[in-house]
Amino acid sequence: DLPSNSEEKKAEDNDVMMVDKDCLAADVFDIEKAGAPTIEPRFETKFWVETISPSIMKQWEQYSMPQLPSSDLELALPPINSYIPSNFELKPLPADDSSHPLLNCSVKVCIGNGKKKQWYPACVVKFKMEKNKHLLLLHFEDEHEQWYTLDSKIVDNEADDIEAGFESSFDNGKVKFKVTAVPREGEGIVFSYGDADHEFDVEDGVAFPPIPPASPASRLPQLVYNNNSLKLWHMQDRRFKRPLGDLRLNFVCDGMNDELKQACMDLFCRICADALAETCYLASVCELGSSLYSNDTGFSIRVNGFDDKVILLAKEVLDVVMSFRGRDGHTNLPSTIKESRFDACLEVLRRSYSNSGMDASNFVTGLRLLCLKPSTKSSFSKLKALEGITSHAFVDCMNQVLQKISVEAYYHGNVCREDADEAARMISEALTIHHRGLPKKKMPSKLIIKAKDAVDHHLITSPTVDPTDNNTSVEVYFQIGKDDLTNRVLIDLLEHVLDEPFYNELRTKEQFGYEVSCGARWTFGVLGMSFKVTTSCKTADEASARVDRFLGDFRAQLESMSDESFMEHLVSLAKEKLEMFDSMEDECGSYWSEICEGRYDFEGHRTEVQCLKSITKESLLTAYDDWLHPVCKKGKPKKRRRVVFHVIGKGEVGRPEVDDPSEIGEIVDGLVTDFHKSVKGESWGKITF
User: What is the pTM of this model?
Assistant: First the structure.
């Protein structure tokens, strides 16, 4: 018996047979007339090669055409997705700083020095065409730069032929050169001495890695649009060579200084994202992504994917976001938002606030930031601020918040200057004619509380948000001071030196907690270092005391550290800082963080490595004594800017008594307020870079 679908199967087989018969009738392959076969060399398979007849090609062409259904079936194709990219070409680079296979390579150049000729290490930092000549700019170890004319004209499609050992000449054979290192995909300028022994020494950690030259200004983000309300940075990708774009925008709003406005901003982002769900789905099918999220001073937007459609999606997002502006006197939601979605988005946000801080480890870090950043409001206070809020009250609040805004944007990827100008026009138009910029003097200051420099630390103790959580988390924070290049490098080096022994002692050997870590902290321009222990078998007091004891004991190890071990740490940290970006997104994110923080130090990793080269063991020991070591040279407790945070779990010693778990939010806000009062609200002031 045949299965139930046998009739359909028979019909398909008959169709195939009819096609085959038609093909056979048109042109039959005759093995006797085909001649001698060709033999595949590896498996010795025999095969024949024969031209496909025009009749068969014509049939195939007919069958490849789309067969639309007849009109009586009432079927139709779905609407065309407007986000499907169609242009995948890479944008041309500027003529005076174009691409070349030798660009970013490290070379050795044979230059005459009197009667002798000597080989000097250099790297190719720039290429341009001038009067049909290929000109390369070489950067030498002594910071000297010089243009040379390349004798052999190597074009981009010959890039695969360039590898270490490639040799050619400059200036009509007067200057010979050979390639010593070629950058990997996504890597910038590479610098190598071309000395195998030195490279082995760097690998072994006994020699400092060569530092590549600074990137030309054209290879870093450039400010291309700047007025009262909009600053736009732009950089055309040269590393990854993908048809991708990444547009990021940060909106700074006026008066974002209380719980209600920050809570309404959170709700605003959720409502806009909800309204854009269908649009963003269509875009995501075409590998276009978007995100909208709030912060202490406003909100941020990111649109990324194929550069061909980034601006189109960004405009759709901005149209929804900006529909809330210029509506003074209106208390109803704009037409872009469905009235019924307000309550749904509000409920989701309330649940998010209620579930905030459930993890003890994340909660203790959040508690530290609440104490250090007075502009940040807790989830508990924002939840309380939203009690009884209506859509009319929400719209009224957003009318105030969005009245004056300032936008800073960054456009990165396969985008040329003309694309950046288009993005600037699109953003300016989206701000609408009702736009009023936020003057620079009115921009919110990101103040950081200054911890007391005292022998006794400030202790902040909170219960876990989840009353059933058995974990206790402790974070010991040391505040160093305002951002400074040398101090920043010293803190990074201390983290590199301390991280492994701290983990080994407390986690591996003593099983003190299941999460043990230490790390450098950079909070709005204030440097610090924190040590965290999350445990279910030790009390909070035991954990914080163990951290201090470790810092006291480790001083002797640091002092007795051999020069070889110290050099290994220096070299390892330098290599980490000089590592290439993993992706275009990684590179864009690094530059965007510099823009958001207002540092604009796009080559910070390079300057830090240069500074690191001058760090000595004595300077590291001095920094350790000044910032971390618990006792002075006389053996007495010394002053440090230290704040200790305890988040204590169920049934543990020292856990504050809480009758009602819903009161934990008020307890946390009270702890933060008390800390600010204890330091009299003193901050590090406005930090400029």
Answer: 0.85
